[in-house]
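This part of the workshop introduces the protein records we will be handling. A record pairs a protein's sequence with a compact description of its fold. Comparing a sequence with its tokens is the quickest way to learn the format. The record below serves as our worked example for the rest of this section:
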Amino acid sequence: MSFGDPPTPSERGPPFKGQAEVGLMALPFIFARRLCSMNMKIKSFLAKPFASYIYKGIRKGMATAVEDQENILKMLIKVGRTTEFGKQAGLDKVNNYLEFQEAVKVRDYEQMRPFIDMIKEGKHNVLWKGKPIYFAKTSGTTSGTKYIPITKDSIGNHINSARNALLCYMAETGNTAFADGKMIFLSGSPELERVGGIPTGRLSGIVNHHVPKYLRTNQLPSYETNCIEDWETKLDKIVDETIDKDMTLISGIPPWVQMYFDELIRRKGKKVKDIFENFSVMVYGGVNFDPYKAKLFDSIGKKVDGIETFPASEGFFAFQDSQQAEGLLLNTDSGIFFEFVPAAEIYNENPTRISLRDVKVGENYALLINSNAGLWGYNLGDTVKFVSTNPYRLVVTGRTKHFISAFGEHVIGEEVEYSLLKAAEEANVHIREFTVAPFVSADTGKSYHEWFIEFENKPENINEFAGKVDHYLRHKNVYYDDLISGNILTPLKLTPVRKNGFIDYMKSIGKLGGQNKVPRLSNDRKIADELSKWSETR
């Protein structure tokens, strides 16, 4: 996460009228670079006019979102025609969206792999013009290590979208003071290797190399600490480096931010607000924030403003542009053409595909992307739901592969999170982590959903709490309700996990820290059977 560099003419914003205006736009950053060492408060002062400028441009772009998307598609087709992928797909014969759907089929990483392998072998103009400037290395549940291309054209999407999220917050709230303090970004190692001659590493580590010089003095932890691979060792060093600093902004995936807070509190014996008196902004993404919110705010000791983001190795798709409105603003003018598939159809041979123009509020869609990174008809595996089409704001509802339908119920992440949070609110309990899996019995009427939950404070009556969760899930999912009513399923079973059980589980499989997280839902018992080792009954 960074403010990024001054905007280029291709970025969203009021039209550029010549080089003089570009120079004027860059002035705050030029001055900031020269003067920040003299007066730290110059950063927050100079951020105000720049934030206002970008915010006005983003608001203006809300009205042209569909047009911007159509222009991006035209650009992608034009460039794509010259690539190996485009030649195989016949993009030279494509002139509209319907023809594009016929030429570019829905695909996952495995279907992209032959083209990625060609790039790794040193070939040019494979998925996009030239060669990628980076590979973002990420792990997949079925594909092993994945190498996602980042091109010269697509890097700005990652850098400037993060910056725009912060600038929108500044413009709307007037809070720019945090720019004068220290900011922590809990990220992966910035050390890069070379794959096929291309610098390769975790996305958060790649982005770390693009933090501008005028923010380097604000950024923590140090480069050396960020390079530590072992999460527990890294966490200790992060706390060492930050515990006595004026931390004003903290960014990271919620469960790992919570671990950071826990260690701060353990060492200091007081709430985070009393350790970092000027801490006012938390930036997060990667998982639904709601299950973690109560515990995080309790650890802080006060409510702070939050900025939610929707980034991935494949692109930066949306961000929270307002503290007042629900949902995340879709990034409609940043080199990505979005497509939407009704979630239930995503594994059909020829699913329905629609563009932004035809989406409807309240419907669950699987998200596809086509981008100037060279991804085509790419199924991200994320599901989203629009909460507004004026402007286009959405919420992330889950993963296409993370659901339970062992009995035909097709329970999704949004439904289990809603049910658990409603019950937790009523019982006044805090949830640290949870996951759900089916238990399929050979005996009729003995099958159920098993919920593994690590509580911060347990409910007085576990069985009563489980009953409430089950009640809300039945209300949310009619198919699950029918299975319970028909005695095909028994009500859910709740298995409490001992304190730090999820952390110990992640450590046992070598995935503690970074951007790794436990899936909310599984359609098998692989995770459940392992987690059983850390249940309170063991």
